């Protein structure tokens, strides 16, 4: 990590722990990290930035901020079918709050251990709002990475996990809505946890190499991210709203407010994967996929319709929290 005199101590106290991966020859502490390039692999590199009050609510616990900052970056690696190796962190802070930093760094270390990757460098600066930028480095065998383009007419569209939980968690966190009376007691906590602690679908992404014809992770909402795949592949899509996998909490929410299905498929922060698969594929249950539709060239590129033929908003899908199309 590059550092001014005051920062050395801060970095040493909070961000300098021994690397766990053998590829990392030198981690935090010098002018640059040293990594042995993984033999026979391509490097996959992704970067994503988060700002307090925009990408996570200001009051989010620091451990969860750390978890989410790393998770969203590893989710991009997962979407490419890559395995995580290392990451750098740049952190802008309004003031040096030792308690916040201690909790943040312990959350970061726990997350890094959980996903088997090392913090190898970064920088800290003063900033008007808590701002984090992580660059993640992953490994993927050459010619096997899953990209956004490449899907074919007739391919199935499938997603991992459940869709829309984070959008409902966010609506609750921001006080945009009261809990529906149909929610069970633990549901609100579950939805909030899905917002704060997304789980990058690393094993599914790697298992789908050689099977998925295209794919990406859902960061800005199912409709918008599926739209990116459609645009890159020059196709349109038909999806079955009833087939979209929902958590128990989301199902109970929709019992009272069925129209909110649109909020679930347009909302962001799921960090599930959406992939295209050849129609004849035999789904391995270990992939954790649910088929929700198929790709077609019947409509204009990028258009998404539901099975009944009604056009869905597609790339006009909008992240209400970010307030813009990221
Ligand atoms: Mg992505």
| Beta-strand percent range | 15-25%
Query: Pairing-aware structural class of the strands and helices?
Result: alpha+beta
Assign the CATH class of the largest domain: Alpha Beta
Rg, rounded, reads 20 Å
Question: What is the count of helical runs?
Answer: 9
Instruction: Give the low-confidence spans.
Output: 316-326
Cα shape: globular
Ligands bound, unique: magnesium ion
Number of strands: 13
Number of domains: 2
N- and C-termini, Cα separation: 28 Å
The CATH homologous superfamily name of the largest domain equals: PurM-like C-terminal domain
Q: What's the CATH architecture name of the largest domain?
A: Alpha-Beta Complex
What does this structure look like?
With 326 residues, this protein is of the alpha+beta class. The chain has two domains: 5-140, 60s Ribosomal Protein L30, Chain: A (2-Layer Sandwich), CATH 3.30.1330.10; 156-316, PurM-like C-terminal domain (Phosphoribosyl-aminoimidazole Synthetase, Chain A, domain 2), CATH 3.90.650. It starts with a helix and ends in a 14-residue tail after the last strand. The protein has helices at residues 5-15, 62-80, 98-114, 165-173, 187-196, 202-207, 222-233, 248-256, 261-266; strands at 24-26, 34-35, 42-51, 83-93, 118-126, 131-140, 156-160, 214-217, 236-239, 273-277, 289-296, 304-306, 311-312. The protein has a seven-stranded mixed β-sheet, sandwiched between helices. A four-stranded mixed β-sheet has the order 3-6-4-5. Helix content is 30%, strand content 23%. It is globular and about 60 Å long. The site of magnesium ion (MG) has 5 residues, from helix 2 and strand 8. Residues 76, 79, 216-217, 219 line the site of magnesium ion.
């Amino acid at each position: 990590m590059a550092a001014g005199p005051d920062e050395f101590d801060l970095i040493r106290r909070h961000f300098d722990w021994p690397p766990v991966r053998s590829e990392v020859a030198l981690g935090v502490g010098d002018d640059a990290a040293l990594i042995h390039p993984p033999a026979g692999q391509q490097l996959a590199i992704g970067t994503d930035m988060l700002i307090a009050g925009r990408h996570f609510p200001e009051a989010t616990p620091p451990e969860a901020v750390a978890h989410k900052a790393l998770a969203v970056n590893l989710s991009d690696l997962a979407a490419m079918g890559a395995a995580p190796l290392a990451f750098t962190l740049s952190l802008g802070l309004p003031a040096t709050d030792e308690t916040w930093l201690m909790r943040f760094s312990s959350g970061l270390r726990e997350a890094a251990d959980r996903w088997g990757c090392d913090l190898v460098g970064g920088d800290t600066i003063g900033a008007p709002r808590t701002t984090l930028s992580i660059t993640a480095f992953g490994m993927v065998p050459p010619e096997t990475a899953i990209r956004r383009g490449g899907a074919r007419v007739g391919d199935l569209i499938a997603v991992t996990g459940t869709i829309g939980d984070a959008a409902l968690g966010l609506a609750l966190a921001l006080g945009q809505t009261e809990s529906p009376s149909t929610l069970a007691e633990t549901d609100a906590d579950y939805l909030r946890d899905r917002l704060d602690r997304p789980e990058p679908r690393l094993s599914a992404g790697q298992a789908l190499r050689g099977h998925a014809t295209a794919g990406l992770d859902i960061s800005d909402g199912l409709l918008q991210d599926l739209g990116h795949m459609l645009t890159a592949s020059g196709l349109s899509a038909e999806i079955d709203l009833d087939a979209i996998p929902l958590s128990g909490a989301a199902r109970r929410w929709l019992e009272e407010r069925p129209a909110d299905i649109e909020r679930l498929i347009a909302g962001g922060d799921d960090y599930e994967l959406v992939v295209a698969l050849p129609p004849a594929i035999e789904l391995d249950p270990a992939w954790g996929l649910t088929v929700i539709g198929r790709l077609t060239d019947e409509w204009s590129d990028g258009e998404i319709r539901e099975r009944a033929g009604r056009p869905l908003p597609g790339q006009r899908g909008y992240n209400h929290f970010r307030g813009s199309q990221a």
